[in-house]
């Protein structure tokens, strides 16, 4: 108690005492300095944010263009050259009277209005241009002159160095497909999967829906598409993610792996320091909007998902979770040897350098301290179902030291987890890579904080992985010859503060039960990875086939060989060409080489349709939400949305920057990442086309399902890749 009171007393900036000698004022200079630095930094960030938003909001114009137009207008007015068609003279006589001051004022106001009008016309023009999608469908054949002219104009616009959010207001809304088109496309995707009787039944349900409540639901959805930036995204985030009650671990979170070969250093603290510093620099690029928007061809993607990359945590609720984002975070949360720490990353003036962060991390790694099982297993609470975690959080983490320590983790920029074992890739032993994937997907069930937007994971030999929470979205590293961080230590970094907890017997029982639940989930998932080096993107392009379509046909063949039937397949396609866009589902459809060409061409068309807002599943999902609001029952929508995705696939883009040429430096190629199976009797498959001669696959399934096996699917997939390759050997 005395220690607690002393800590509380030391946190008081001002104090005074009253005695016979008068009032004595005491204050803590160091604490006042910290408070001043915090206020100053917050003010500077607000000013910088306003300036950046202003610059992004007037793009492609600039503040200098405003100054130029005002200067020209004022100069011409003073030279008695009227460019306002008499408006300035009218305003002077009617409103202010003729004088030098009124002439100057009216000229500035008129030129400002002209500049604003030009800016709005320019942004409207950009928006209209970005609504054109014909160029996407012409990439596979000869491009028309009109499209070439369009691409040239867009390239000229992009020469103005856009900021991260320069195009946000100019991106078009996600178009709402007509009801008839969506229903027709839905039936087309089901034809290869249904027998005649099932197909006729589905056609009857579809016609009944189209001729009864379908048009009414479509009208309500049309109204929503007019009033919102994106008619899908908010409902998708709420109903698919935040209202989901199952555990995030394995069921929702996904993972990513480091490069297969190069790590830079095997010193754990050094690698952690550099990856932490690089992540914080990336956060600063986002905050300052210095990060350029990602382009598809020459058209920018929506950048809204960057906003919640850092300083974000998913807070559990009994019925629905919430995503909480803090505007700033000056610390990260670190898990090491079973304990949680709060590590400051800013000294009040600047970010800590990698060499300074390494000092802190070395202290944490080399410290010896007693850890209870409750403290070690605390993270397992984030690995159980959301309702149970919400109730435990409300009961045991609402007051006192538990609330304070929990807030330190949740409000951190991100979490950093030091693992006590080594991970690596061995081409002669697939179990090594499989184990690495397992540890990034779920760890031990208690050594990650699955609620955070992302966890950085650093192994004992310096390999890095990431585990990311899914609902909020869909750098150079330098070392000395010894593997330590380059740089001079200018300050003495503040030591990490170990977070304290109050574990009651009831809370201890809840944590022990959470560990059991997490272990049950972990034991039920099987991962199998492939790093396929016999051919890659180079060979596929020589065959004049879309790489994504080629891989999807391989997966269809593999699934058929594994299960002796086809199934409804989920492939995620992004819709970020539109404002607040996230994903849409591509449903692959369709002996030998000619049929492969046709199937790939049809798949590529479906993929482009999904990117252009002509998908099926998100539209039907929103119609179902409207029907729930209106309390209208639809057998068609219920059946469609209850269909299991037994083959859920996703492609990981290899590079979205030009920092590294992976053809020259193949050791920098990443194996990508993966996720857990969506259906209990299905497969979750992620793939990354890593280069001209490498393709990686991540296969997941449930161990307790008798009909699936990730290891068996891997062997079948390898055979399918070689069999399809043999079609082109001649």
Automatic annotation (TrEMBL):
UniProt-listed GO biological process terms: carnitine metabolic process; fatty acid beta-oxidation; long-chain fatty acid transport
Domain Choline/carnitine acyltransferase per the UniProt entry, residue ranges: 174-717
Pathway in which the depicted protein is active: Lipid metabolism; fatty acid beta-oxidation
Membrane topology summary: Multi-pass membrane protein
Keyword annotations: Acyltransferase, Fatty acid metabolism, Lipid metabolism, Membrane, Mitochondrion, Transferase, Transmembrane, Transmembrane helix, Transport
Enzyme class: transferase
Subcellular location, record wording: Membrane; Mitochondrion membrane
Residue intervals passing through the bilayer: 66-88, 95-118
InterPro entries per record: Carn_acyl_trans, CAT-like_dom_sf, Cho/carn_acyl_trans, Cho/carn_acyl_trans_2, CPT_N
Gene Ontology MF term list: carnitine O-palmitoyltransferase activity
GO CC terms: mitochondrial membrane
Residues at the active site: 470
Catalytic activity: (R)-carnitine + hexadecanoyl-CoA = O-hexadecanoyl-(R)-carnitine + CoA
EC number(s) from the headed UniProt entry: 2.3.1.21
Limits of the Carnitine O-palmitoyltransferase N-terminal domain: 5-51
Similarity-based family: Belongs to the carnitine/choline acetyltransferase family.
Protein name: carnitine O-palmitoyltransferase
Species assigned in the record: Trichinella pseudospiralis (Parasitic roundworm)
